[in-house]
Amino acid sequence: MTANPAIEAFFDPTTWTISYVVFDHTNGHAAIIDPVLDFDARTGRIHTTNADKIIAFIHEQQLTVDWLLETHAHADHLSASHYLKSKLGGKTGISKHIVEVQSIFSRLFNLQTTLPCDGSQFDYLFNDAERFSIGILQAAVRFVPGHTPADLAYHIGDALFVGDTLFMPDIGTARCDFPGGNAKTLYHSIHRLLALPEDTRLFMCHDYPPAGRSPKWQTSVAEQRKSNIHVNSQITEAQFIAMREARDRTLDAPALLLPAIQVNIRAGELPPAESNGTHYLKIPLNAI
């Protein structure tokens, strides 16, 4: 019988992001998924409040971190993977298609001479359907592009960490208007996930709760098939594409898009310090 993971969620109300520690109680091995590094855009200051909560939990539970897993290069928060690796160890992992995202944004930020677009900033690049382990937990990756060209979902025991594909059923699905995104591709990626057994636990990367509902992040394949407002079993591919593309045209760019991408394509590491010892993030003017 496949072991199922214990899961601790960490919700960041500033970016509406949920990070996870996924672990087994038998020998205390763990993975951290989509950790958040706090960033104040008004001052350019970075803080580690969210990441330090994860560190405290890891120490409290006496866990060994095997993996720091990213579902994709996020546009709404900076990744804390590099910071957490420096404190806890473990290997950073992401889809091998991160090289496509690096190439796109290397041109935007004019980083061709300073940023190798080969994924080497990460310790491991996953192939679709590749299997790996977290202690006794058996895990597999599922390539689910559409939101970006490099999205992965992590299937660990009976739990699936869907990244930015699905949201809670009353919110719907992720946007597809980032470079390399595609609504048709996302539709098929989502249906790949919804073909899993109905009782598969699904864990969201974000929740944007409507008025009157507190944040939630766990649902199931059965609930998504029945009730997701964008992609339930009654909605056709053509209907989804038309809805998604129309909705995306109304959305503003994420507030942290430009700083987040520069850090996240580097596996959470800041751009190299300049001669004065200060790290800088670029803001390309009139480029997007």
> In what order do the strands lie side by side in the largest sheet?
1-2-3-6-8-9
Provide the β-strand percentage band: 15-25%
In terms of quaternary structure, what is this? single chain
Report helical residue fraction: 10-25%
Q: What structural class results from the helix and strand content? A: alpha/beta
Radius of gyration (Å): 18 Å
Main beta sheet: 6 strands, mixed
Shape: globular
- Unreliable stretches covering 5 or more consecutive residues: none
Distance between the termini: 50 Å
Mean pLDDT: 97
**How many helices does DSSP assign?**
7
Q: Number of DSSP strands?
A: 15
What is the H/E order? EEEEEHEEHEHEEEEEHEEHHH
Textual characterization of the structure:
It is a single chain. The protein is of the alpha/beta class and 288 residues long. 25% of the residues lie in helices and 24% in strands. It has helices at 49-61, 81-88, 98-108, 183-194, 221-227, 237-248, 257-264, and strands at 6-12, 17-23, 29-33, 36-40, 45-47, 64-69, 78-79, 91-95, 124-126, 131-134, 137-143, 152-156, 159-161, 201-203, 218-220. The protein has a six-stranded mixed sheet, covered by helices on one side. Strand 1 and strand 2 (17-23) form a beta hairpin. The longest helix is centred in the first third of the chain and has 13 residues, at 49-61.
